Structure formats: C-alpha cells, structure tokens
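Schema walkthrough. Field components (list of strings):
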Amino acid sequence: MRLAALLGPDLKVLENDPEVLREVFEDFHPEDVAELLDDLDDVAVGRLLAALPSEVGADLLERLSSDRQVDILENLETKDAVDLLAEMDPDDRVDFFTELEADEQKALLDELARTEPETATETQELLGWDPESAGGLMTPEYAALPPEMKAWEAIEALREMARKGEAETIYQVYVVGYGEKLLGVVSLRDLILTDQSHTLADIMTEKVVTVAPTDDQEEVARLAARYDLNVVPVVDEQHVLLGVVTIDDVVDVVIEEATEDAQLQGGVVPLEDGYFETGLLEFVWKRGAWLIVLFLGQLLTATVMERNQAVLQGTLELALFIPLIISSGGNAGSQSSTLIIRAMAVGDARPRDWFKVLGRELVIGLALGIVLGGMGFGRAYLAGETVDPAALGVAVGGSIVMIVTLSTIIGSLLPMLIERIGLDPAVSSTPFIASVVDVLGLLVYFSVATLAIEVLF
Amino acid sequence: MRLAALLGPDLKVLENDPEVLREVFEDFHPEDVAELLDDLDDVAVGRLLAALPSEVGADLLERLSSDRQVDILENLETKDAVDLLAEMDPDDRVDFFTELEADEQKALLDELARTEPETATETQELLGWDPESAGGLMTPEYAALPPEMKAWEAIEALREMARKGEAETIYQVYVVGYGEKLLGVVSLRDLILTDQSHTLADIMTEKVVTVAPTDDQEEVARLAARYDLNVVPVVDEQHVLLGVVTIDDVVDVVIEEATEDAQLQGGVVPLEDGYFETGLLEFVWKRGAWLIVLFLGQLLTATVMERNQAVLQGTLELALFIPLIISSGGNAGSQSSTLIIRAMAVGDARPRDWFKVLGRELVIGLALGIVLGGMGFGRAYLAGETVDPAALGVAVGGSIVMIVTLSTIIGSLLPMLIERIGLDPAVSSTPFIASVVDVLGLLVYFSVATLAIEVLF
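Field assembly_structure (string):
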C-alpha cells in the first residue's frame, strides 16, 4: 500500500513501461513490488512480466496468488509463460500447476518438457504429493554432499551450488550416501568453524529430525516449532532424502492452519483466499451451507417446544428463561470446545487423554454451573407469579447447573471424538456445539421444571 | 513421550544420576530430554541441572516453561542458579526474570552482577521492554561488523564469534557504523560467494526490513511472514541496531497469538500455559469471568420476554420459535465476526475498510436471511393452530430475515469498532456477539410478530 501511495499517479506509467518497473524493483522489496501489480489487469501484468528478465519476472510472479498466476499466464504466449515457469522456485511452480485442470496441466508440462525436460520431470514428481503434505511443501533444491568430503571441499561445492542457484538454502548441508540416504547434517556455521581438513562424516550430527513426504503439513509445522528447525528434511521409507521444507513455508502453514481453524470454529467452510478476494457468491455458499445445516438441527428446538407446549401453557413464566438457559449452555460449551480444539492443534492434548479431560471438565463445569445456577435461581425467584417462586427458581437454577455441566463436558469430548474418527476437530464449531446443547438444554429444562413444579412444590 | 516410554523404569534412575542424563543428552534432542524432566520434581531437576556442565544445564532449563524455571531455581543454591542463568540465551533469561516479583528480580540481578556484570546489565536493559514487543523478543547476540571489512576478514571474524558463542545466528551479518547504526546486511551465503577482497559495503544490501523495539510482536511476525525473513533486526529511532528477533521466536509468536485469539473467540480469558498445565482454579476464574458477564447480559433476554408476556399469552405458538430465531442470529453473527477478526489478524482488513465490509455483509446477510427465513416460514406455517398460519409464518420468516441480516452486519462491524478503539478485536467473541444478537433477536421477533398478527392478518 505504501509503495502504491508513493508512486501515486505514476502507477499508470508502470503499465506500459517495464523499465519503470525494473527501476522500482531495484529499490524496493519484491514483495512490495508484487503488491503494486494487484492494481493492474491480467494482460498488463503479463506483458510486464514477459518484458522483464525472466528471473525478475518469475520472482514477482511467485508472490502473486495462484489464482492470479493462472489468469496472467493464460493471457501470455506459451513461450513467455514457459520461460517464467522455468525460473520459478520448484515449490511455487508446483503450487501453480496444482491450480490447473488436468488437461491444462498436461499440455503445459509437455511444453515445459520441450525446453526444460528436467524441470518438467521434477514438477511432475512433486505434483504427485498432496499439496497439504510435507511432499507438497518440499523443494528438491537443497545442498547434499557425500560424507567423505572435507570441510574446505564442501565449502567450495556450496559456493558452486549457490552460484548456480541450485539450492534454496545452503545453511544446512545434508550428508548423503549409500544411494542418497540421509546420513547426517552439518550446519554451514559448523562447516566454517571446524578444522578444514575434517570430513563431513567427522563433524556431522546424526540426530536429524525428519518427516515423511506423506506427513500432514501441520505435523511438519509442529516439529519445526518444537525443535526450532529452520529447514525440515523429507525422507522416504529407505531414508532417502527427497527434499526439504524451508521455514518460510512453515510460517505460512502455521498462519494458514490457524485461519482455517478459526473459520471452521466460527461455522464457515474455510476460504481459499483473503476476505476481500473472496467473491460474494462463494461467501453465501460457504456460510450458507453450514447455516442451513445448523438451522435444520435447530428446527428440533421447535419440535421439543411443541411437545412441551402444555407445560408452558400451565406456567407461562417458564418461557421467560428459555433464551437464558440455552445460551448459558452454548457459552459454556463454546469455551470448552475452543480450549480442547486449540490444545489438540498445538499438540497439548490428544484423543487418548479423554478421560483426564472429562475429569477436569466435570469439575470445572460443575463449579461454573453452580455459580450461574445460583444467579439464575435469584432472577427466576423474582419472576414467579402464577407459580411458587421457589419452584420456578429451582427449575431455572437447577436446569442451569445441569446444562452448564453437560455442555462443558460435551464441548470438550465432542472435538476429541471427531479427531479420533479422523476428521478435523475444528468442525465441531461453536455454532455446532451451541445447536447440540440448545436442544439438550430445552429437554433438561422441561424435565427439571416439571419435576420442580409438579412434584417438589 | 516416546523417550520417556523408551526409558520406562529407568526414568527413576535419572533422578539420582546426572551421568545417565548426560548420556541421554548425547543421544537425543535436548527438547526431548527436557520433556523427560516434566515427570520429575523441582528439587530433583534442580540437583540434576546443577550437576551437569552449566551450558548443558542451561540448554535444558531454557526449554522448560518459565513457571517451572522459577520453581526449580528457587530450590537451588544461589551460586548454582546464577551459573545456569549466566549460560542461558539472553532472550530466554529475560523471559525467566519477567516471571519474578520485583524484589526477587532485583536480588537475583545483583547476584548475577557479582560474577557476570555485563550479563546483568544486558538483562536489565532487555527487561525494560514489554515482553510482547519486538524489544521483549530480541536477543543482543547478533553478528555486526564494520562496512570497510573485507569478505575474508568478515568470515574470520564470524568464526571467532561462533567459537565464542557470541552470536545466536551468523547467517545474517549486520553492517554497522557511525555509532552502531544499521547500514545494511550481508548474508553468509553472499559472503562466501563473493570475491573475498570485496568489502562488506560493496556487497551488502541496503534494503533492510526493520522493526522498532516498541513494535508489537504480532507486527514482527507479520513482517517476517510477508518478507520471508529468518531474522528481523530491531533498531531505535537513530537506526542504531539494538538486537535481532530470530525466526524460531517468530514461529512461537504466531502460534501463541493464534491460541490467544482462538481462546478469546471462544469466550475464555487467554491461558498462560497449556491445557493440562493450567490449574482448575485458574480455569474456573478465566472461564467464569466471561460466563458471568455474558450471563448478566443474557438476563436482559428474560426482561424482554417479561415485557412481552402478553403477546405470548395471546399466541403461545410464538414461544415455540424463540430458540430457533435467536440461534439463527447467533450463528450468522458468529460467522461474520470470525471472518473479520481473522482477516484483521492476518492484515487482510483494517477498521478503515468498514464501509466496504458493510456493503458486502449487507448483501451476504440478506441472501442468507432470505434462505433461512423461507425455511422458517414453512416450519411456522405448519404450527399455526390458534393463530392464522400465514401470520405465524410471516412473523417467524420475517424475523429470521431481519435478524440474520442484522447479526451479520453487527458481527462484522463490532470487531472493527473494538480494534479501532485500541482493544483486541478477538474479545468480541462468538458468545459475546451471540448475547448481543439474542436480545436484539427477541426485540425484532416481538415487533414483527405483533405487526404480523395484529395488523396484517
């Protein structure tokens, strides 16, 4: 934004003059330059990127959303598009290809294979992994060297790799041998520090934290956070090094997963793009789908009410406290589900801890229920006119104690059950829990009320 | 966990034999070894840490929670405690001191100053910054060199620093001069790659993304994510380099902030520790505080109901749909508030975008309201017995259209307003929005119902 504001009316000049863009590129961070391109149309951006040196063009292209990349490249000559694709980082290139339809993917890969057969093969291989797995995040551009190499030779080799742009990071050197098997790792720091005649095998550490290519990206992020890793190597079952996931992608995963969880918990099907990039129709669909499901569930409340119409007719005061009672349950359930979902997301709790969780939530729920139930008793006592105030108080207070306790327990156990059966626990969203406990709250209320009014008083 | 399971009964041996712990330390990642210590009591852990070489002891101590660190060090001889503290990373040491009471802090700093006066001064300075700011995250152990230094000299200097353990990272070399002012940055990669007779000034890049020490940690994380930074330098107003924030701390911040937002949105005062580390009393307090506030707000629903008791008495069927109507509003509001809060957290939306948001949410809310309202009309039509079914249908359906639209708008604007007045928008939690729109839902319902039943039909 700042950069666009800085350029002001000159922004229009950009559109027709790649030279201006190149100058801006010299002076600003590519991320800021890429943001400028958001305000130009696809054809203009395509023309600009094609006119720039292809490594500069690719560097800018990589920073746009995958959707936008597709729109831009579709408007380019195939040759220009292939030139840009060939210069992109392998993981970004794969993200782009993932956005394409199968036939477009194949056609473009064939084009790429004509000029850059190795790049095409590499892309094809990476496309085989789930985009949300370690394999989908990894780049094959890492520094790998044999164990018998001496430190000074390794530094020379790294210089060569860096010069050719063959490695995304050279700060971790992977020591491989016996068929590309990962034997250990040496940091560039240790490499520089050591006696230069030592071999990599002498100085490498063999304690390497690795992931499998099929591991979920959340697992990669969890390990990187736990062990403070800047790079996570990906190995297959034979411990052959396939690629590395770099920390910048890990940070993106952490943010993306937190956004997805937040949206799920708010009862929204997660968005692909940012708030303002999402179309109104997509919003109506992604919010409407859940709202309709929840509404259908909530229709049960009307049925429960209908069945208990006679009770209400007898004591109309009971109706006054229905919103209060069901919302107390909803709020208590929302708290415990949020806590457990987040605890599972950061690895603090697992489904097998359910019994321990149950014990804690039972005590907490009961304590909270008694406090709120006491307040509810007081308020209801004041409202009793056609009915014994104490009976109404007990009906409301007792129901609150029960429903708060039950909701607390359901809110904590339901997400664990959902995780256990292999779904994302965040789907047991706050609105979902609220709907479940609303129906339950009414059932409890009518039972307790009947008991209190007809039997006890 | 795996490591603890692996050791099994041998875990007890650890407690009395630092030698065993040292052996485990050789073979496993320190993070896993530190986890083993969770199962031992404070006194035993203190004895073990004191018996290990102090850099090993400090490395393990750093990985425990700050609370635990305090409990452990309080049980140690002052000399042993000071030895461990002196070996900790500066940012971890500061986190520890932050946990202490003012007088304990002073006493321990004085002790530290006796043997390590420089460390004590540095700690004192770092303690001056808000723990949740860039200053609170930064470490003063970075590599800084003068601009006239040649590449080969710089590499020699880095070797020396790394050997002395003076820099937490040497992969970014900060070029400083004219009174420690940050002039530019050179990556170790470029340093190795370049002609070794070039000076740092020749090869450094001057486009450095920096933060101020008072910047919020969320801002640091946002910049690191945006620009793919592994280290973020912190400078004062004169552009003097004060310290650097490393990516491992950035990842922790991102996770911590996401957890805090998730808990706030679930209506819980954010926890300091993990789910199982938080005591039951703290839970009751942190959940109860919000539940009571929400309950007090929800008491308004009983008042609104009381005022409209006559309407209910006239047409009891109206009561049947109260839970359905208020929950529809709550769910719609929950969706829009979640989306906006997250959009603001990741920098997609700002309070000044409120008008654009209002326009979008109005359209989306109306579309969703019409769909749900149609369903509500159908269900209510079937329930009309003492009243014209069409009138009941219009009362319920019309109210749903209105309340869903209103809730969608309130859910999106309220968090922006809260951010605008400088509070964390996540406090406008799902339960909070639900409480606001519950009351509103009842008011709308009774007005629409009166109109539909008495005037229209």
